Amino acid sequence: MNRDLRKFLVFILCIFLAYSIAFYSYVFQSLEEDAEEIRVIEETTLPEPDKDDVVEAESLPIDETVVVSGGDTLGNLMNRLGIPVSQAQEAIEELTKVFNPRNLKAGQEIYLIYEKQPDSPAYDLQYLQLRPDFEHNIELSRKDDGSFEAIKKKKHLAHHHNHIKGEVNVSLYADALRSGASPKMVYDMIRALSFDVDFQRDIHTGDAFTMVYDTFRDEETGLERAGELSYAELTTQGKTHKVYRFQPSGGVPGYYTEAGEAVRKALLRTPVDGARISGTFGMRKKHPVLGYTKMHKGIDFAAPTGTPIMAAGDGVVEKAGRFSTYGNYILLRHNGSTKTAYAHLSKYAIKKGDKVRQGQVIGYVGATGRATGPHLHFELLQNGVHVNPRKVTQMPGTKLTGNSIKAFKNAKDKVNKLMETIPPGDSISDSKA
Ligand SMILES: [Zn+2]
After folding, report:
1. How many angstroms is it from 337 CA to the middle of ligand 1?
2. To pair with 114 at 20 to 30 A between CA atoms, which of 8, 303, 327, 370?
3. Cα separation, 414 vs 404, whole angstroms
4. Rounded distance from Cα 296 to ligand 1 centre (Å)
């Protein structure tokens, strides 16, 4: 057998293996979750994930590429993603054996796989990869015993940009896979568009989709790893939805509309796990401590002291400190018009000025200030007015401004140019990668 043919066969085998593993993981995941799903999977080999699956996809490991901005350290980058400080320190300590974290440059890409801790809003780092220079690859993996191992490899991965277009015949999931997208890309597309499209009802035969995403290919083995979904477009019932991936400087990556508006994210309705509501929003006949009628401007969640409190949405810490009868208090600014407040805390997990991500632990339940017992007093403010958090399910979109909108327009132009250059179903290699 000649060398090239052998190489080609190995390549085909690898692709086949990769898809088998991806498909197997998908099936295995579904089997674990719901016995009802088993039948469905046997009948149609490529089921379309329904809404529940999309939610469950949230608990799958997240893998993404983040870009380092000026002033970022590996530590604050990991913390921003929800990885606990002590774990990030462990990881950096191990990484330091093969890489000097001070050599981290703005604009550098870091690929991470992290997974939600069971019963906790924090994430565990599973894998980290970065390229300190063109020829080397630094990999940090978590071993079975929970410790980290860092290695330095000499490697060249070719960065490919892929463009696919397709039409829904069987299901969006099946047809996107058939067009060449990996399951990760399809999930990312569903997640990014799920605020505007009801994937259970709105998808019909003949609906058109377009995706632009990148992959990293080891030219020797032909093995490929997924990069990021840079663009997704879906036309359904005569309406076209377009989203672009973008990471604002110093922020976390997300999807934005053509106009630079963040794809809306649902606000966490319960910022503490396993808590019961002990006080509702509205007028109170008799205040338990003061003894007179008073407006209750938030919701109370009863929970033991020390229970972690999560950020209801992505945002910036505007206040973190003692605040009169509120005791230890945190105020988060989510965008121009929405803020959330958390009162009576026993401890803080963040400080003023920090950027936080939805679900990140920001503090712990306590009974500081005027409180009858340990609980979280949670408030939602829109345009400076207290509103009932129970009645608001969506955060208003965040619009990029200033330098961010300029950077976004550049990123958008790049993607649009890629779509013009690459014929659908094809890819080009980026030698600068
Ligand atoms: Zn209260």
Report:
1. 22
2. 303
3. 15
4. 6
158-264+401-430 under CATH 3.10.450.350, yes or no: yes
How much distance in Å is there from the Cα of 8 to the middle of ligand 1? 66
Determine the distance separating the centroid of ligand 1 and the alpha carbon of 324, expressed in angstroms: 14
Position of tokens 């630094």?
Answer: 138
Find where tokens 């007028």 sit: 283
End-to-end distance of the chain based on CA atoms, in angstroms? 34
pLDDT at 105: 87
Q: What is the pLDDT of residue 48?
A: 42
The predicted pLDDT at position 217 comes to 85
The pLDDT value recorded for residue 394 is 58
> Can you give the pLDDT at residue 42?
30
Residue boundaries of the structural domains of the chain: 1-45, 59-155, 158-264+401-430, 276-391
Q: Do domains 59-155 and 276-391 have the same CATH topology?
A: no
Angle 84-263-68 from CA coordinates, rounded to 5°:
45
pLDDT of 210: 97
pLDDT lower than 70: segments of the chain = 1-59, 134-135, 195, 200, 220-221, 264-269, 273-275, 283-294, 335-336, 392-398, 431-433
Would you say 345 and 363 are in contact if contact means Cβ atoms under 8 Å apart?
A: yes
59-155 folds as: Nuclear Transport Factor 2; Chain: A, (3.10.450)
137-193 pLDDT tens trace: 899 999 989 899 999 987 778 899 999 999 999 888 889 999 999 988 988 888 788
Question: Can you name the CATH fold of 276-391?
Answer: Glucose Permease (Domain IIA) (2.70.70)
